[in-house]
Amino acid sequence: MTHASLGRSPIESPRHGRLPTSSPAAAVLKFLGLAVAVVLVALVTTAGIAFANLNSQVQANAVDISGGGEAPAAPPLLGAFPGGFNLLVVGTDNDPNQGDDFGERDATLNDVNILLHVSADHKNAVVVSFPRDLVIPHPECTDPTNGDVYDAMSAQPLNEAFSRGGLACVSATIENLTGLDISYAAATSFKGVIEMTNAVGGVPVCLVEPISDKDSGLDLPAGISTIQGDMALAFLRNRHGVGDGSDLARIASQQQYMSSLVRTIKSSNTLTDFTKLYGLAQAATQNIQLSRSLATPDAMVSLALTLKDVDLANMVFVQYPAGSSSEYPNKVVPLSDLADQLFTKILADEPFSLDADSTGTGSTVVDPGTDPTTVTPDPSTETPSAPDASAAPTDSPATPEVIEGLKGQTAAEQTCANAFSD
After folding, report:
1. What pTM was computed for the model?
2. Exposed, middle or buried by CB within 10 Å (0-12, 13-18, 19+), for 409?
3. 368-385 pLDDT, tens per residue?
4. Range of the domain at 149
5. What Rg do the C-alpha atoms of the chain give, in angstroms?
């Protein structure tokens, strides 16, 4: 597989306005990728009444991401999808549904980009979070809503893609970067965050130390707190109070949230509680734009059924490998060798595992039953760099190959956020 390389030409003048890096609003969507997938799982048991009520709304907002290519095969009626698939979830800022509560911006940006891959045997899943400031080549894009054509660009931040053709262009850009075929996609604004969190009854999060951050409004003690409503919003958009204050540290917090959300869904009665399920379905459909390939009850149920039985230990959350570059200040660039290893595994549908030092910047792994307030925070807050090529994998025949240097965790692991440290 040939991984797209970073162009060397200088950054071109952007065609549209860009959200300032420091804006708290842009961060709030970091958790939504797996939340949307979990909602799709939840929809499995609401196929009757819920689909009848919500189907017309979903269809009306659907968008074509095929670029004129062949549409994916129709899924079976209320049966699991036959094989693996890739689902892209995009979180947008300045979406028309956002309102004025978070300020005005010049363009709609894809500030959250999360790819879910489910293996063909439905035993493994990988969730890849792409940094919004990742400088990469962008392909030519055609906006399916009006036919406008946007020229290819050699080196621009990933979050420019939505303004160049909406969900279809983001999908094409991620395909160009990774070599994957993306048949299913969803885009959402952050207006539904509170409603979706409330619908599941709150999500437990963990802090090694107290965090009080005026910018986001986060104010939580050390230990485990179950958050929903405004406090969930604050946790998800918090940046300056966690880790090294970087966007990569915030991604680690979002992965903690997503992992906890999955555990909450699976350990509670959510999948058999019609009130919770229908609340999740309403919150999702009112704030999500689906690709046409996904905008039917059959498609949603089919993809959801493939996720229902994935073991928590086999659901891996990873950050797309990226590091700093003097050529692009305040941005990040691909660590191409490590990214190639990751997507070679995904393309081949082969499972992999993370090494012992994989915890994301700003997070600490805590053993079940351990008091988080007694744990020493992980001091590592450096921006990731290329892994040591001489490092030997420690895998055995009983475990998947280890990809050294990836940052992330499994859904089975509990991680706790570290307070900001210089």
Report:
1. 0.80
2. buried
3. 777 777 776 765 544 443
4. 25-417
5. 20
